Amino acid sequence: MPTDSATTIAEPDAKKQSPAALCQLTDEMRAAILSADNLSQVQSATARAINALVPSAMAFWRSPPATAGQPSRLDGLLCPSEGLAASFTEQLGRLAGQAVMTSTLQTATVEPQSRLIMTALPIPAIPGHCLLITEDRCPSAASLVLDDGGASASISPSTASALVSLMPVLSEWGFKYTSRHSAGEAVTVAALIELISRVQSAGDVHSASQRLADSLQAHLGATTAVVGLCRRGLSECRIAAISGGQIIDRLSDETRQIEAVLQESVVRGFSAVWPVADRQNRHALMSHEQYSESLDGSTLVSMPLLSEEGQPAGCLLLVFSEADGRVAAAERFLRAGSGALGSCLHVLQKLADSQWLQNLRQFRRAITVSRLHVAAWVIGCAAAILPLPVTYTVKGDAELQPVERHFVAAPFDGPLAECLVEPGDVVEKDQLLARMDGREIRWELAEVQATLNKATKERNTQLSSREFGSAAISGHEIQRLEQRESLLKHRDTSLEIRSPVEGVVVTGDHREAEGVPLEMGQTLFEIAPLDAMTVEVCIPEEDIRHITEGMTVRIQMDAAPDMVLAARIRRIHPRAEVRDGDNVFVAEAELEEQPAGLRPGMRGTAKVMTRRRPLGWNLFHKPVAWIIGWLGW
Predict the structure, then answer these.
(1) Which residues, including other chains, have CB under 8 Å from residue 369's CB and lie 6 or more apart?
(2) How many Å apart are CA 24 and CA 161, to the nearest integer?
């Protein structure tokens, strides 16, 4: 642990130290410190002065945390603070804290190396800031004694002289800086008052958020200003307004990136600038980095705002095209006005919630205040509307069927040589559908012709021999062979199977049955003409008593939902059928027009327009019938 020493500097022994040995600030050093515009410049000027006055010392500047919850900042003036031992940094911070709390000079030895002495000089004019100098312990013969009522520590005369010279100069600069800062705060307060008054004069949450975004953009010179709001009790932050009245597309990638930045800032709990100037304040800024890269390296400044209860109220996001002095000014403005802006967003939050609650309250009031009037109005409207006559419609499934069906059969026994069509093909009249194999027919025809020639010669021989009985028998055999020859020739010319009508092939796919023997009369194809189609409507059995022939039917096909076909019921089957698991009666309806594109087997929905009945009967006759049946009446 460091050993603390004196709070006052003892008078140096004139015999041991001459005044010429004490180093003093030059006018140039003093002017450089007093002319600094900001803390970074005054640190640089102080570093140059210490380097000139105490060349062998290490100097540090301790700054208070920028936001509550963050550690204090330690900057190296003559050497980088990165890479220092953690124990050494901790001792420096502890000594600086003691100096700031007591507002007096503090010294201590560095443990475990007691040869090093730390000196902390607080700067009261800049609250929380402290100058730290570390050097080797001086020999007692050339040292100044810091008396603490018993304990003592020695520092070099050059260090004591430098501290004595720097204290009034730094205090003077601090007073000037505080004065300028106070003037800036006054301007900030005036701007905040004007900003809040503009927001509070808005009529709704949308216009209030838009005014806030536009005012922040104009006052701070940002490229874009975004206002995000959190619903009460929730930490999720959503975009409420973007400067310039930009339309918020909730599904766009840019909106998602902005809301991710707002949410990240709310989770962090303190302001953030990207690209970061302070490496200790760069954690949890991935969304800031990604959104900045999407904007070609623009600078982002975000500030989460809390309500008076400490709950998240929203977040502000500023985008700057260039990293200049406006960024630091904007961050200072948002920090200075975080409380007022948080209260402002809290008001917007309440306004957003109260608007929804107000609408709900008005709706409930409209229902509860005059229940009797509303009930009377509903009953009156029902009494006036329910007796109105309305056409009762019966819904059912519909399917297109051809009016005529033509079946093509095998003309004789024989193998199938080739099939040229399949179901769904549109064919013309006399179009070739299939071809039968005629090799066996031609073989048999050749055999019959040879037998016929032989029988003819035998009959001629019998006639010349006057064998009239045998000749008569041979004549009958010749007639039989001639008829067989005629039949085979006819079959040989009938090997091609053609369509009898123009239409579409409904059934008959024999492409994989080539070479299979066919029997005479076996159905090969079913062809339906396309010029005449009928509709089969499935009528539920509970509604069949309302359906009669001649009623109009409106049909909407599944294949063409934008087309409504008109038809009239031509016939109702007397017997119920089971289709798709339902017991229905099939009604045939004739189409008034035959549009192109209709094919047999198409399905759809049909509405049969029955008689006009009261609206109340249309709505309630089925439930009443079910209740009566359930009661067993």
Answers:
(1) none
(2) 6
